[in-house]
Amino acid sequence: MTAYPDAPLVVVQPDPRPHVVSLALRGDLDYDTGDGILDAVRRALSERGDARALLLDCRGLEDIDSTGLSVLLQVHRLAARREIGFRLENTGPALERLLTVTGTLEHLTSPAPALPSAETAQTASESPGSGA
To answer: For the stretch 93-114, what's the b/e string if a residue is b when 16 or more beta carbons lie within 10 angstroms of its beta carbon?
Structure first.
């Protein structure tokens, strides 16, 4: 059970790179929270129609069950359908163990397609004709 049940399960994290949606998962990812987390990811992607990559930071993930793993796989498929790169970050030992045992570690943690760096984004915004 999540230590802070009223805290948001998905937190949008600022990312200096263009076209990157970065979300942090907090608390438990299980039968009780899975639908809410999936809805929050869908909302975040809908709000950023220019997204080319989705990064899920799992540092704040406390527990995950088989339903939670299913949610991660659904998020991966959602990103693939939208032709958006996907990657889990900061998975930690417990989540990595689950992903290894289920054969999904490489599938969910492989690097997203090449993304512009924050420096590239800054340079592009300062170039002539960019309106900066």
So the answer is: eebeebbeeeebbeebbeebee
